[in-house]
Amino acid sequence: MKRIKVKKIVIFLALFVLVYIGGSYYLGLKHSQRYDEIFTQKLPKDIVVKNSHKNGIFKTKNISDVVFSKEYLANILGLNSSDIKEDLRVEISTTIIHPFFSLVSGTKGEGFIKILSYKDIADKFLKDKQIVEYSFEVKGKNNQKVHLQTTQIEYKDEMGEIKFSPIVADIEYISGGISKVNSKQESFKLNFKENDLEFELDDIIYNTVFDEPLKFDYGNLYNLVNSSSEFGFKDFILKLEDKKNGELKLRFSNYNDKSRVNVKNSIVDIKSISSANKLIIDVDNEKIQLNNIKSNISLNNFNKDFYDKLFKELQNNTLANLNEEDLQDFIKLFIEKNPSINLENLSFKYDDKYDFELNFKTGVKKFDLSNPMEGLKNIYLDGKTIFSKDIIDLFLANDTETKEMLVNSQIIKESGDNYEVSFKYDKNQMDVIINDKIGINQFLSTQF
């Protein structure tokens, strides 16, 4: 959830700066009045802006005092207004260079955003209370390029340590919207001594290309649109020590995910192809290592109205207060377009020796909530997993009885050097049938 909130703030600041620069273009060409109209006409009532201009022959300086109300912050973060300490007040300062031939060569400028409220937090974490620096180049009304960099945060006390290296982003802004974002961050580290928790994420990248420029919407910072994106990192490290439950260490290395979102006629299709070099799970010095991890998954026929409603409820912080009728409406929206999940492949090597592969398809077709038992006949599931025999031997090395029971009951069946498990939902039996032989319910009934 925290990741979603931080991502919302970063996207919001990036978009807000772009709208600001669009207005500054007119100011740089001595259209101060027109600039004010453009900068403020898109704002909701919960955002108040006061502009001041200092016009020069070759340079123009613009300073805007912007106040985001507690109610607006609560809305975009999915909190109650009582959870927000005060209005957020920032100063946006931009210097625009506009020589005589700027109409031909383009206008350049630079600026920064400084936080004026939340002084205790700003003084502790931010150098000169500055949160963002940016430079930009504008060629015509419909072509802007922005280089944006957040301030480095580094703080340490008896409670722990925070190190947050700058997020560096290059943004292309065309025809009133964002067309491309390339961003990276060197590292993000947290250390909470009281909870014996360490978290580290290194060499992070996030790139997105939108098929059509993403228009700015102050009320909806998350909107599913046709786009291609890439997310990755070099290392994810988590250490957690508990006096009762022991020590847990996680390391996830060289992760990369390439995703595609397609939206058409309120139907959303998402495809994700990801890979990672290794995942190490260490519990009290007992290690499990998975290598060469790959996955290929598709989410099809998801209802965009469901997504929009879900994030609206999250933003309004009302999801937990939904009654039974509201929840049924949510479920109806979810199943309305016959959603499906297709895991085309999930594979990895265990200790670089043993293979594991899994694939399946699952979804619903014309599920009727008014008759749930009949609706269960419209669920489908069909899949298979193949894994090295040695994996079973590792986990059941001293339990030959259980191993024989799994083989004899045909829960797993031999296939050369591997074991194979196929599974399929039978709508008549309303049970998942394993290897076309035995249902899960039937198997469990013989064990208890």
Word description of this protein:
With 448 residues, the chain is α+β, with helices and mostly antiparallel strands. 24% of the residues lie in helices and 51% in strands. It is built from eleven helices and 22 strands. It has helices at 2-28, 32-41, 70-77, 102-105, 119-125, 304-315, 324-335, 372-375, 389-395, 400-408, 440-447; strands at 47-55, 59-68, 88-97, 107-115, 130-138, 143-150, 153-157, 160-164, 167-174, 177-192, 197-215, 227-242, 246-264, 267-283, 286-303, 340-350, 354-364, 379-388, 413-415, 418-426, 431-434, 438-439. Helix 1 runs antiparallel to helix 2 (32-41) and helix 6 packs antiparallel against helix 7 (324-335). It is globular. It starts with a helix and ends with a helix.
Helix content: 10-25%
- Distance from N terminus to C terminus (CA atoms, Å) equals 40 Å
Structural class: alpha+beta
Given as residue ranges, the uncertain stretches (5+ residues, pLDDT < 50) are 1-6
Tell me, briefly, the overall form: globular
How many helix segments?
Answer: 11
Q: Give the rounded overall mean pLDDT.
A: 82
Q: What proportion strand? A: over 45%
How many β-strand runs? 22
Which sheet architecture does the biggest sheet show? 22 strands, antiparallel
Alpha carbon gyration radius:
27 Å
Organism: Campylobacter blaseri
Keywords: Membrane, Transmembrane, Transmembrane helix
Pfam family, one: DUF945
Protein name: DUF945 domain-containing protein
